[in-house]
Amino acid sequence: MDFERRTRRELDKLGNEAQRLWEEQRDVLSHARDVMRDASRTAGDYTKREILPRAQDSYGSTVAPLLAKVSTKAAQAKKPASPLVYVLMAIGTIAVAAMSYAAWKTLRADDDLWVEEESD
Questions:
Q1: In Å, how far are 2, 55, 71 from 61, measured between CA atoms?
Q2: Distances from the Cα of 56 to the Cαs of 43, 46, 60, 62, 67, in angstroms?
Q3: Which pick of 37, 43, 81, 120 has the fewest CB atoms within 10 Å?
Q4: Measured between alpha carbons, how far is 84 from 82 in angstroms, rounded to an integer?
Q5: Is residue 85 pLDDT above 70, yes or no?
Q6: What percent of the chain has pLDDT over 70?
Q7: Residue 11 to residues 1, 2, 5, 19, 24: CA-CA distances in angstroms?
Q8: Higher pLDDT, 114 or 100
Q9: Residue 71 CA to its chain's centroid (Å)
Q10: How many whole angstroms separate alpha carbon 116 and alpha carbon 71?
């Protein structure tokens, strides 16, 4: 009887400690959520105020002119395709078709290839 009473007291004590720990963890998680919300808001404000204007200036002064030059050069340099390109594409297509057919023939279920086990 004394053993049962002592065990019950220990279980109650552990239950109370677990409940206290759970409440502390909830408080910690709530505080962490508040801190993350404030940090996110601050980061967004900083990005709008500092990072975005710098990125827009950099794009306008560096990237946009380079893209304009590249697209102009690409439009000027574009030549019609040589007949050799079409011949090579046809050869490649035929090669892929032949390999696909060979793989299909190899992997298909052919009844003659299977050996049935002999049953006693």
A1: 85, 10, 17
A2: 18, 15, 6, 10, 15
A3: 120
A4: 5
A5: yes
A6: 85
A7: 15, 14, 10, 12, 20
A8: 100
A9: 31
A10: 66
What's the pLDDT band for 95 if we cut at 50, 70, 90?
Answer: very high
Maximum mean pLDDT: which of 2-11, 74-83, 89-98, 108-117: 89-98
The residue whose two tokens read 């019609």 is 80
E strand residue ranges, 8-55: none
Q: What is the mean pLDDT of residues 38-63?
A: 87
| Count of alpha carbons within 13 angstroms of residue 71, beta-carbon side | 6
DSSP SS3 for 3: helix
The string over 52-87, giving b where at least 16 C-beta atoms fall within 10 Å of a residue's C-beta and e elsewhere, is eeeeeeeeeeeeeeeeeeeeeeeeeeeeeeeeeeee
Q: Which residue has the tokens 């594409």?
A: 89
**Cα(10)–Cα(42) distance, rounded to whole angstroms?**
48
